[in-house]
Amino acid sequence: MIVTQSLGVGGEGSLLGAAPPARGGAALRWSRFVPATAAEGPGLRAAVWVQGCSVRCPGCFNPHMWAERGALLDDPADLASRWVEDARAAGAEGLTLLGGEPFDQADALATVAEAFRDAGLGVMAFSGYTLDRLQAWAAERDGVARLLAATDLLCDGPYLADLPDTRRPWIGSQNQSIRALTPRYAAEVDRIARDGGRDALEVRISADGAVAVNGWATDAALADLLDDLGVRGDRVASMRKGTSR
Ligand code: SF4
């Protein structure tokens, strides 16, 4: 179910026209996991931000997540069993994959997504690649095929800063699509196509004073909010959605 049609245009230096890189090794490179958020998809969901993106959209809010080094490197099966347990304990009904580019690490994330699906939880994924390209690559890449098969809801297409989308939740530009790949979120996708929706922003302040943000707000709105909280913008671990904003 297509809300808008993706254009499939990447930024300078983008590898968008090429297949997602075949990463060596089985480990997942990731930056952050939260067991429950209401700002990254339908309902209450776990979310994982992966490290590394070869799409490189101009204006991306998460350029610090482009590099394919650093962050954390772990076995995906170990992560999956831990994250499913944490998500269930937090009352989440699904998982959202964002970053970074999830399909650059399709093999490892397929293992994670399949574990969530096996546990009866839904899976949402963001990708800077368009669905038609992912489907073409799936014929040759088992990991891409597995991750697509384990995805219920896909937000796809590169972020185009000159086409901002203010009508729909979660995605950042008008070229991007919100697609129900299975019936699980089909009613929600239909509702968004009909009525649009609003974005949400979550600010977490830990006991040591660290501030982390996820969800979506304009730079101006975020600056106003942080100013009200008395937080310096350069001290915030901003993890706004990577594949769409
Ligand atoms: S918006 Fe997403 S796909 Fe585009 S460069 Fe940023 S992380 Fe990569």
Second CATH tier, the architecture of one domain: Alpha-Beta Barrel
Largest sheet: 7 strands, mixed
Question: Approximately how much beta-strand content do the residues carry?
Answer: 15-25%
For the secondary structure, the number of strands is 10
Secondary-structure-based class equals alpha/beta
Low-confidence stretches: 1-12, 238-245
**How far apart are the first and last residues' alpha carbons, in Å?**
21 Å
Gyration radius, in Å: 17 Å
Would you give the CATH topology of one domain?
TIM Barrel
Q: Regarding quaternary structure, how should these chains be classified? A: single chain
The named CATH superfamily of one domain: Aldolase class I
Shape: globular
Features:
single chain, 245 residues, alpha/beta, TIM Barrel, seven-stranded mixed sheet, three-stranded mixed sheet, 6 helices, 10 strands, globular, disordered N terminus, disordered C terminus, binds iron/sulfur cluster
How does this structure look, described?
With 245 residues, this protein is α/β, with parallel strands linked by helices. The protein has helices at residues 76-89, 106-118, 131-138, 142-149, 186-195, 219-229, and strands at 28-37, 45-50, 72-74, 94-98, 122-127, 153-156, 177-180, 201-205, 211-215, 236-238. It has a domain at 28-198: Aldolase class I (TIM Barrel, Alpha-Beta Barrel), CATH 3.20.20.70. It is 26% helix and 21% strand. The strands form 2 sheets. The protein has a 7-stranded mixed sheet with strand order 3-1-2-4-5-6-7. Helix 1 (76-89) runs parallel beside helix 2 (106-118), helix 2 runs parallel beside helix 4 and helix 3 crosses helix 4. The longest helix is centred in the middle third of the chain and has 14 residues, at 76-89. It is globular. The structure holds iron/sulfur cluster.
